[in-house]
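Q: Predict the assembly, please.
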Amino acid sequence: MFDMQPFGCMIPRVMDDVFKALADASRRKLLDELHKRGGQTLGELCQHLDMSRQAVTKHLGLLEAANLVATSWRGREKLHYLNPVPLHEIYERWIAKYERHRLDALSELKKGLEENTNTKK
Amino acid sequence: MHKPDFVYKTYIRSTPEKTWDAITKPEFTRQYWGEMANLSDWKQGSEWKHVNKDNETWIVGQVTESIPPKRLVVTWADPDDLKDVSRVTYEIEPLEEMVCLTVTHDNFIPGSEMAGKVSKGWPHVLSSLKSFLETGKGLKLGCASQSQG
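A: Predicted assembly structure:
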C-alpha cells in the first residue's frame, strides 16, 4: 500500500530564505521547469537546464530548505515538486481580497497583448 | 510505481494531534476551509464527504488508510462524476516544536477534470490551515480560490 517512502521534512527557515531562494535566475529557472512538469528527478532536471549537475544539486537544496521544492521518493529516485504554499503565503500577505480580480484581469490583458505582439513579429 | 501529481508541504507550529483534528473535525475545517466540513468516522473503509454549510456534498470518497495522528489516505471524487476519482494522502510528521504536513494528491484518471480544479485550491487551504492552527483564524477564501481542495 505504501508505494512511496515517507517525505523528507527539513526544519523550515524563515521567510528570508524564500526570498533569497527566489533571488537567483537559475533557481527561478528550476522552479519554472518543475512548474512545467512536477516530479522530475535530478537527472531529468539536468537534461533540461544548462547547468552542471553539481549546481542543480546545490540550487535544489536551497529551494528545498526554503520549502519551495517538496520531494518524495519513488524507490531510489527522489522526485522534485514545486511547492507553492510559501508563495501563497506571500500572496495572502500583500494582496487584498478585493484586488484579486482586478489583478487577474490585468494579468490576462498583459498576456493577451504580449501574445498579439509576438504573433505579429 | 506511479508518480504523484501534486505534493504540497507546509510547516505548522502545532502538534500532530491538533493538526489531525483540524483536518478531520467539521467544527475546525469550517473555520479555515471555506466553511466546508469533512465528515466521517475516519475508520479504514468508511465513507467520507466534504460538505458546504448548506450540507450539499461537494466531494465524496472512502477512507483507505487511517493512522491518527500520522497518516490519512482517502479517495476523492465529485459526487456527480464518480469515475473521476483520485487519491489524497495527508502525512503529519512532528519536527521539534512543529509539524510538517505533506498533502499528496495523485492517482488521477487520464484527462481528469479534478486535477485542474484542485491545483488552485490546495495551496490556499494549506496556508489557511496553518494560519488557523497558529493564530486561531483561517484565511478568507476569495472567489478565485473557492474550488474544491
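Residues 86 and 92 of chain A are 10 Å apart (CA to CA). Residues 84-121 of chain A form one domain.
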